[in-house]
UniProtKB/TrEMBL annotation, chain A:
Origin species: Asticcacaulis benevestitus DSM 16100 = ATCC BAA-896
SMART domains linked: AAA
GO molecular function, one term: ATP hydrolysis activity
SUPFAM superfamilies: P-loop containing nucleoside triphosphate hydrolases
Record protein name field: ABC transporter domain-containing protein
Pfam families, A to Z: ABC_tran
Length: 258, 216
């Protein structure tokens, strides 16, 4: 099986700049007094967001990522999407990323839903003609009806996420990244989205889904990554993790030990 | 743009004892052309900040944002050109642009790309530059021969012209627009600025590019 995504002992450290560190004037002042004020290192804080992540996804794998808030789920998705570059280690992605990390990414609130579809499509590298061909299917799936011709600023959060979901799954999905994408949709749409995800499994070559919903991950994913404070606690088959006790299933541990 | 140039033309015409139809084309074309390199100070600092939403969610190349904003500035320039030619027609001072305007625009475009990217990067890292740089553009506007003539400066003040890349980048477009050719000094300044800018860009952009998502 060919490799889709491979992370090789990836570390990600990211700097957080305080208001003081974001000012050139302060930095100049510090330089002129010999940098004493900066020496305590509290102005730029380095956060170890991910440490020593090491896993491989093959074509057709669907990875679920779970972990507490701040465990690094979104950071991992952004790393795979290429937004962040790893501080150490190596990451290999073979395919086109279609991400839905944050709803409202690149949505222009003043344009209509239809114009935003074209915008998002153009940003993903499609021609206007290609987008127009899939426009009807897209609008139908998003269930927005006549709202599609209204400015996006009139949409509710759920409607906006439906629009983005429709775009990212309709236009040539290859590797899909989702971050809690169902939390804002209504019940009908969740059912519809799940059906769409099933049909997508044939079209797309892989998926990473970060979620707090264990049933959803058990339903849709075959691989599981458990993160805790940026560390990889578990990676393997979904069946190998006991969601109730938050531990790997006992037989697996025995299997590894023997 | 039209109102500013008329106001400046009235004042400067009075100071320099020139009639309005003589000085207005010079000042109007000057303001029009200063707008192009002025992009580096006025609009470039906002580029990464204003698209932070997209940068944090999609891995598009960072050069895309620079191309987008510089192209927008050039489209606005073309749009203003219509107003300029209307004014020239009214003053009956229509001139056919010299052919050197084409390489000049290319040179200014490249300058805007490299220097603009640098400005966007430092402005994303140091937030106070977002206010400082647009303010600087106003000062540089007064210190550049946009509405005064370089020949009127003497003594040490000629250095305001001689080492001013904004003068070069403005003049290589303005002179052809007025139907003449730009002095070689303007071309030298523009070329030197592009070379220095490209070297700085190569170094800083390749080195700090990966940090941009953390800065914004």
């Amino acid at each position: 099986m060919s490799v889709l995504i491979r992370l090789n002992y990836v570390d990600l450290v990211y700097p957080v700049y305080s208001v003081r560190a974001q000012s050139l004037r302060n930095m100049m002042v510090n330089l002129s007094v010999g940098g004493k004020l900066l020496k305590d290192g509290s102005d730029i804080i380095h956060v170890q967001a991910l440490s020593r992540l090491n896993f491989t996804l093959n074509v057709g794998d669907r990875l679920g990522v779970i972990g507490h808030n701040g465990a690094g789920k979104t950071t991992l998705l952004k790393l795979v999407a290429g937004i962040y570059e790893p501080t150490r280690g190596h990451i290999e992605v073979n395919g086109r990323i279609s991400s839905m990390i944050d709803v409202g990414l690149g949505l222009d609130p003043n344009l209509t839903g239809r114009d935003n579809i074209i915008n998002m499509g153009r940003m993903r590298g499609f021609t206007t003609r290609q987008i127009q061909l899939q426009m009807d299917e897209l609008i139908e799936f998003s269930d927005l009806g006549s709202f599609i011709d209204l400015p996006v600023k009139t949409f509710s959060a759920g409607m906006a996420s439906r629009l983005v979901f429709a775009v990212s799954t309709t236009l040539d999905p290859d590797i899909l990244l989702f971050d809690e994408w169902l939390s804002t949709g209504d019940a009908d749409f969740i059912v519809k989205a799940k059906q769409r995800m099933d049909s997508l499994l044939d079209k797309s070559r892989g998926m990473i889904l970060a979620s707090h919903s264990f049933p959803m991950i058990q339903l849709m994913c075959n691989k599981l990554l458990v993160l805790d404070a940026g560390e990889q606690v578990y990676f393997g088959e979904v069946d190998g993790w006991d969601f109730n006790s938050q531990k790997p299933v006992a037989r697996d541990v025995e299997g590894q030990m023997s | 743009m039209v109102a500013t140039s008329i106001a400046l033309a009235i004042v400067m015409g009075g100071i320099q004892k020139q009639s309005l139809p003589d000085i207005l084309p010079y000042i109007m074309a000057g303001i029009l052309c200063f707008y192009l390199p002025g992009y580096v100070l006025t609009e470039a600092p906002e580029v990464y900040m204003s698209s932070s939403n997209i940068i944090k969610n999609h891995a598009y190349p960072f050069t895309y944002y620079a191309f987008e904003s510089v192209t927008r500035v050039f489209l606005v320039f073309l749009h203003n050109l219509v107003a300029y030619y209307l004014a020239m027609a009214i003053l009956t001072r229509l001139a056919i642009p010299d052919w050197t305007i084409l390489p000049a625009l290319v040179l200014v475009y490249c300058n805007c790309l490299v220097w603009g990217t640098l400005a966007s990067m430092v402005a994303a890292r140091f937030r106070d530059l977002r206010f400082l740089l647009p303010f600087m553009s106003q000062i540089i506007f007064f210190m550049t021969p946009v509405f005064w003539h370089p020949n009127n400066m003497d003594g040490w003040r000629v250095w305001l012209v001689r080492v001013n890349p904004f003068y070069g980048l403005m003049e290589i477009v303005r002179s052809p627009l007025l139907g003449t050719t730009a002095p070689s000094l303007a071309w030298e300044l523009s070329a030197a600025s592009l070379i220095i800018g490209s070297l700085l860009w190569l170094f800083f952009f390749s080195r700090f590019r990966s940090k941009i998502p953390f800065w914004i």
